[in-house]
Design goal:
globular, disordered C terminus
């Protein structure tokens, strides 16, 4: 069963803390559990589809995935985070940050940070 639950965090001193708390409580099993943020329906029929941010907990390797949708073949729109606060900041800023990695553990951006979440065989 899919459910939509909305909440407003305006006026919260650090909204990243509130979102990180949600991410921490999100179960990794069963696969497919995710939280959707800032969903916008297509502006016209046959348009590009829903635009939203999705976040989920990774079962096999720990951490969180964050994806800005629609992806449309751009793998850089989906990145992975070891820390829920870093994932929450990406969700709020609507862009990936230097703490992200790709599926293979390659760091996000050109920050030179070490890859944090290597992809296991048969991973997420």
């Amino acid at each position: 069963m899919n459910r939509t639950i909305s909440f407003i965090i305006d006026g919260v001193e650090d909204p990243a803390d509130a979102i990180a708390t949600l991410l921490l409580r999100l179960p990794a099993e069963p696969p497919g559990n995710s939280i959707t943020f800032d969903q916008e329906k297509p502006s016209r029929p046959g348009g590009p589809g829903d635009v939203y941010t999705a976040a989920w907990r990774l079962a096999s390797r720990g951490g969180w995935g964050v994806s800005f949708r629609p992806v449309r073949g751009d793998a850089d729109r989906t990145r992975y985070y070891r820390n829920p606060l870093d994932a929450a900041r990406a969700i709020i800023e609507q862009e990936h940050n230097e703490h992200s990695t790709d599926r293979d553990g390659t760091p996000g951006g050109d920050t030179g940070c070490a890859g944090l979440i290597p992809r296991p065989e048969g991973g997420d």
